[in-house]
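Subject: Protein record for review, amino acid sequence with backbone structure tokens
Concerning: The relation between a protein's sequence and the shape of its backbone.
How to read it: Take the token row as a discrete description of the fold.
Enclosed: The protein record, placed directly beneath this head.
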Amino acid sequence: MTAIGLPPRTPQDWDVPAADVADQTVRQRLARGVAAEARHLIDPFDREFAALASASTARCSCDADYPGWTPGRTS
């Protein structure tokens, strides 16, 4: 905090090393990613959502939809 209680506005104003701030930012992003994955793993509708792709053959593509295309070809 600055003398009047406002947060510092530039890295030069910080009272901690910039590397510590960067480490904290990385940890926060990692924690958000872990939390998102945990929410995904306990999603009660995940199984039903995954089944949508395999249950509806009318919505799936077939070789006739992409004439001349070779899987894995780069161009």
User: Anything to note?
Assistant: The mean pLDDT is 77. Residues 19-51 form one domain.
